Amino acid sequence: MEGLTIVVGVGVILLAAVGLWALVDAFLIPGMIRESKDSLRKPLAMDAMLANGSAQSQWSGAPAALPME
């Protein structure tokens, strides 16, 4: 019976560790996703502004202004 108690005790400790890991991830993952989106959004927005500026200059005859940061 004592062997079963040890197995259950180790199982409870492992489940508690996994539960703590899941709780920490629940708070960290949204921030990681936000950082990833921001790092993708910046170059795409710059490309879109450059493409929009060059398209406008083709139709208006005026040179396109480069966006300033």
From TrEMBL:
<keyword id="KW-1133">Transmembrane helix</keyword>
<feature type="transmembrane region" description="Helical">
    <location>
        <begin position="6"/>
        <end position="33"/>
    </location>
</feature>
<keyword id="KW-0472">Membrane</keyword>
<protein>
    <submittedName>
        <fullName>Nucleoside permease NupC</fullName>
    </submittedName>
</protein>
<keyword id="KW-0812">Transmembrane</keyword>
